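User: Teach me something about this protein's shape.
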Amino acid sequence: MSLSFALDFSKAFDTVRHSTMLHKMDQLDIADNVYEWFVDYFSGHLHSTTYDGAESTLNPINASVIQGSAVGPAVTASDIKATCDINIVVKFADDTYIVIPASCSDTRSAEIDGVERWTQTNNLQLNRTKSLLLLLLLSSSHKPL
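Assistant: First, the predicted structure itself:
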């Protein structure tokens, strides 16, 4: 038996700070020119709103990633780690799962607390309403492939 938390982060693509992503990229083993391309990609974007004929002033965009760009998911959760060595964090696009074997089921609260701390550091919010706890059972009639 294993437990698996399927985590959902509210507005993950809208709230992630560019500076946070660039800091994470700086820690990766990528060529300088590739890193500089990302710095350029996240720089110089402005936003204003027009409503009822009035336009706001231009303001810099310091957070958010274009959904579908693959940049955000790849970098955003790249440093989330399990608090217990035997537990596993699985990431795919913007989906994140924590798999906890039955032998470590007592670590589930610590894992969620660790995720909460990580979200605060990364300007994200764990959406507990959409996050799920799954119980995975291996049938005794399971036959290896």
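Now, about its shape. DSSP finds five helices and ten strands in the chain. The mean pLDDT is 85. If you'd like, I can walk through any region in more detail.
User: That's plenty for now, thanks!
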